[in-house]
Amino acid sequence: MELDITGIIVLIVSFIFFLVIGVPVAFSIGLSALATMLTRFDTLPAFATLAQRMATSLDSFALLAIPFFILAGQLMNSGGIARRLIEFARVPAGRLPGGLAFVNVIANMLFGAISGSAGASASAIGTIMGPEMKKEGYEENYSAAVNITSATTGLVIPPSNILIIYSLASGGASIAALFLAGYLPGILTGMALILVAGVYAYRKRYPVGKVVGFGEAIRKFFDALPSLLLLLIVIGGIVAGYFTATEASAIAVVYCLVLAFLYREIRIRHLPGIIVRTVKTTGIVMLLIATSMGLSWVMSFENIPQTVSDGLLSVSSSPFVILLLINFILLFVGIFMDMTPAVLIFTPIFLPVVTSQLGLDPIHFGIIMILNLNIGLCTPPVGAVMFIGCSVAHLRIQDVVKPMIPFFVAMIVILLIITYIPSITMFVPGLFGF
Predict the structure, then answer these.
(1) Degrees (nearest 5) of the Cα angle 85, 384, 162?
(2) CA atoms of 325 and 340, how far apart (whole Å)
(3) Rounded distance between C-alpha atoms, residue 44 and residue 429, angstroms
(4) 402 falls within a domain
């Protein structure tokens, strides 16, 4: 099919227009897809086709995992798990100069990995760590920068909703393999953020934290152990083949509910509010998925993926250059678009290029894409984690941008390392035969 320039212009202009006038992202995506289809079809077929594509896109067993993981995250956020993970993170990191920043990063990695939500992690950990770091003399904007950037690491370390969404967009990449592939890149990102925080602490001469005794360290470990076991249960069960990712998500909900009641942080009267918040978040995510998949089909119908592929290959045949261009485009996209629609829209565009032309594994590319778009979550104007982190810290966005720059640089360096050294990503899946 030939490229329809009119349709592409309508798609781009309408999408930008709807965003500029303040239409929510999900509706902007759906309306721009509809406007593009109206250039090819009559009104009734355009509406019917788009509605059919949106409904079909949600007909997936794997997507059932998303509301369950969201509910598990809400239970964790309210169930005292964040506080216990912070206390556990103090054991190895709290005694170092500037150690509270290290605690913030480690706690975010653990909580984000367990909850699968960067926003929940930034809110839960930031609420506790922000006042403590301020009391110890840390600059508030620096504390917020540490919290915001480290909160995104949990989207790579499984279980992760966005990896499930990538599996859908890629046409069936193994969720278990994606989960395993996220461990080393996520840990490397956290270590890079800790390194930046260490340099900052040395220059600012931040105080040394309280030394935790052996007995207290053991107590804190066992206090956090039930929360940490969730990772083993969920990921271990998926990899061993005992249950699917969707079944694992339901098990995670039951486990978190039991844990929250045992911790006595949640009462029966709190459950309706938790469920309502879960339903609201799930509705937003599912609408984004439906409209994004509809737009993805429209772009495929307009032959945009093949055109982009030909354009990239016309610039250079070097894998190094093509991957650099794709990373640059995704970094730019992440500034203006939320992660979920970005994954659903751009995976069908770039995945054929990197797999057929460059020989990349879809699992490897999925981790590259998530690491890349994580950076966009921390950048204005639509960085959701930045807004949450600033709100928790009671700071303006412009106050936090400057101290975040070194952390951005560290995240980009790790992104490039993961991009050009596939063995880092594929090592753990390889151990389990993926």
Answers:
(1) 70
(2) 21
(3) 47
(4) yes
Please give the tally of structural domains in the chain.
1
Long-range pairs, 230-239, Cβ under 8 A, ≥24: 230/114, 230/255, 230/256, 230/259, 231/113, 231/114, 231/158, 231/159, 234/158, 234/159, 235/158, 235/159, 235/179, 235/180, 238/175, 238/176, 238/179, 239/176, 239/179, 239/180, 239/432
CA-based nearest residue to 293, from 60, 116, 130: 60
Q: Is 412 helix (H, G, I), strand (E, B) or coil?
A: helix
> Backbone phi, then psi, for 208, in 5-degree steps?
-85, 135
> Beta partners for 97?
208
3-state secondary structure 232-294: HHHHHHHHHCCCCHHHHHHHHHHHHHHHHHHHCCCCHHHHHHHHHHHHHHHHHHHHHHHHHHH
Q: What is the token pair recorded at 169?
A: 């967009």
Partner residues linked to 419 by β-bridges:
none
- Calpha distance 176→165 (Å, rounded): 13
In a domain, 37, yes or no: no
Q: Does 50 fall in a domain? A: no
Write out the two tokens for 17: 């227009």
Domain limits for position 128: 58-266+302-431
pTM for this predicted structure = 0.83
Q: Please state at what angle helix 339-352 crosses helix 319-336, rounded to 10 degrees.
A: 160
Phi then psi dihedrals of residue 379, to 5 deg: -120, 145
CB 309 within 8 A of CB 45: no
User: What is the number of residues in the chain?
Assistant: 434
Question: What's the average pLDDT block by block, 10 residues per block, for the chain (434 residues)?
Answer: 68 84 83 84 77 81 81 75 75 70 84 75 80 81 89 84 86 86 92 89 73 74 80 80 82 84 78 86 83 81 75 81 91 82 86 86 93 86 78 82 89 94 92 81
Q: What angle do CA 299, 302, 304 make, to 5 degrees?
A: 60
Looking up tokens 């992690």 gives 121
Q: Cβ(91)–Cβ(209) under 8 Å?
A: no
Please state, in angstroms and rounded to a whole number, the distance separating the CA atoms of residues 82 and 86.
6
- Does residue 5 sit within a domain? no
Q: How many CA atoms lie within 13 A of 136 on its CB side?
A: 22
Instruction: Print the SS3 string covering 347-404.
Output: HHHHHHHHHHHCCCCHHHHHHHHHHHHHHHCCCCCCCHHHHHHHHHHCCCHHHHHHHH
